[in-house]
């Protein structure tokens, strides 16, 4: 089975931290929808060399014949689409792909865009799960992040989502903003808990180049939060959510029982997915070989369907990716899976590192490579050492 990701790049305004591809010109939406619908009917596939024609046909045949497991609209802000445009895109997907076994249909939304009619339209189109960008309820933090919604709009959106009775929904929070205190974070969580979200994604604020915050940092006008403070906020979030039976299953994702994000989990286990729209990634691992293909559409609202460059990933590269991503999950990594799927054996030096991590209480004992709570706090450094 496979997944489909559709990138809707439109946003009301630019958030100060965001480095995803987006545009703020809603007047381009009609032409974009026309082009996207055409791409859904005739997906772009990569150029892979002399045998690309044959392989391109194989890839297309795979997508058109394999049941789709998950459908995800991300962005950007897909809720910038009106109901008619959204339904037109979904209808095109249903006409071209096999959705008979669809397990999850997610769309990202922002509080300022949605009302009862919009949510009902999403339900009628088949959406089963919403991911809503809250980030904070504090006015000063919303202003700092240049979010388009107010605290009141965030609460109202969550109330409407609860009333709409989707199968599941997730709320995004950002922590680790400069000057943010633990008390402020606790207040944000308590306000969010009023709405009983079954899934929460909590992301540490990252200052990326070419963003508003990145430019302020380069000019010396902004200093990131202290690392120890950020780690303490993360530990607090993990504990507070666990107290409400919302448990971490990936370093930034927490879910009540039965509410894990199926689409994102598929990424982490190297399941095939097709990306449609500007800047979207695709991944294809044929069953008859240990080499995978990954490609990305250009981040261009007008010319994203130009031939995409294709990256070939060896079994060793795939195994290292699986280790890197798997250690960020509570399921961890099975060494047997690394060998069976990628032909990858952990080296003697890697096993020695693993033994040291276990002695320090950073990795749990047993056959599975799985981090402890202390290990999650330094997951990146553990992965870097293990793969260096």
Please describe the structure with a list of short key phrases separated by commas or semicolons.
Arc Repressor Mutant, subunit A, 9-stranded mixed beta sheet, Heme chaperone HemW, TIM Barrel, rSAM_horseshoe, S-adenosyl-L-methionine, rSAM_sf, alpha/beta, 41% helix, cytoplasm
Structure, described:
The chain is an alpha/beta fold and 388 residues long. The protein folds into two domains: 2-265, TIM Barrel, CATH 3.20.20.70; 315-388, Arc Repressor Mutant, subunit A (Orthogonal Bundle), CATH 1.10.10.920. It is 41% helix and 17% strand. The protein contains 15 helices and twelve strands. It has helices at 29-41, 52-65, 83-96, 116-125, 139-144, 151-164, 182-193, 212-218, 227-242, 262-268, 315-326, 335-342, 348-359, 373-377, 379-387; strands spanning 2-8, 68-75, 104-109, 129-135, 168-175, 199-204, 247-250, 253-255, 273-276, 281-284, 292-296, 310-313. A nine-stranded mixed β-sheet has the order 7-8-6-5-4-3-2-1-9, with helices on both faces. It has a three-stranded antiparallel β-sheet with strand order 10-11-12. The protein is globular, with a radius of gyration of 21 Å. The model has no long low-confidence stretch (mean pLDDT 94).
Q: How is this fold's topology laid out?
A:
Elements: E1 2-8, H1 29-41, H2 52-65, E2 68-75, H3 83-96, E3 104-109, H4 116-125, E4 129-135, H5 139-144, H6 151-164, E5 168-175, H7 182-193, E6 199-204, H8 212-218, H9 227-242, E7 247-250, E8 253-255, H10 262-268, E9 273-276, E10 281-284, E11 292-296, E12 310-313, H11 315-326, H12 335-342, H13 348-359, H14 373-377, H15 379-387
Parallel strand pairs: 1-2, 1-9, 2-3, 3-4, 4-5, 5-6
Antiparallel strand pairs: 6-8, 7-8, 10-11, 11-12
Helix pairs in contact: 1-3, 3-4, 7-9, 11-12, 13-15
């Amino acid at each position: 089975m496979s997944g489909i990701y559709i990138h809707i790049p439109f946003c009301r305004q630019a958030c100060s931290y965001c480095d995803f591809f987006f545009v703020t010109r809603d007047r381009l939406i009609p032409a974009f929808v026309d082009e996207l619908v055409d791409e859904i009917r005739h997906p772009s596939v990569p150029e892979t060399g002399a045998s690309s024609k044959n392989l391109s046909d194989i890839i297309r045949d795979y997508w058109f014949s394999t049941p789709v497991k998950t459908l995800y609209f991300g962005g950007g802000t897909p809720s910038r689409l009106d109901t008619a445009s959204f339904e037109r895109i979904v209808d095109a997907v249903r006409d071209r792909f096999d959705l008979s076994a669809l397990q999850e249909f997610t769309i990202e939304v922002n509080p300022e865009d949605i009302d009862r009619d919009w949510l009902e339209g999403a339900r009628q189109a088949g959406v089963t799960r919403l991911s809503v960008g809250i980030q904070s309820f504090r006015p000063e933090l919303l202003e700092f992040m240049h979010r388009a919604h107010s605290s009141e709009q965030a609460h109202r959106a969550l109330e409407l989502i609860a009333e709409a009775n989707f199968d599941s929904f997730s709320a995004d929070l950002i922590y680790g903003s400069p000057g943010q205190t633990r008390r402020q974070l606790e207040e944000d969580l308590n306000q969010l808990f009023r709405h009983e979200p079954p899934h929460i994604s909590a992301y540490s604020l990252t200052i990326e180049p070419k963003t508003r915050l990145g430019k302020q940092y380069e000019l010396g006008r902004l200093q990131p939060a202290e690392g120890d403070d950020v780690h303490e906020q993360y530990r607090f979030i993990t504990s507070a959510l666990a107290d409400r039976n919302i448990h971490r299953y990936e370093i930034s994702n927490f879910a009540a029982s039965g509410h894990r994000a199926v689409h994102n989990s598929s990424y982490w286990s190297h399941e095939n997915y097709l990306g449609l729209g500007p800047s979207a990634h695709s991944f294809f691992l044929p069953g008859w070989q240990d080499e995978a293909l990954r490609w990305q559409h250009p981040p261009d609202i007008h010319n994203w369907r130009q031939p995409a460059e294709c990256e070939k990933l060896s079994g060793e590269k795939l195994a290292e990716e699986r280790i890197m991503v798997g250690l960020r999950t509570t399921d961890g990594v099975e060494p047997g899976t690394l060998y069976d799927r990628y032909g990858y054996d952990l080296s003697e030096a890697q096993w020695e590192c693993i033994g040291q991590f276990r002695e320090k209480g950073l990795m749990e004992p047993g056959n599975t490579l799985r981090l402890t709570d202390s290990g999650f706090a330094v997951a990146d450094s553990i992965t870097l050492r293990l793969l260096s």
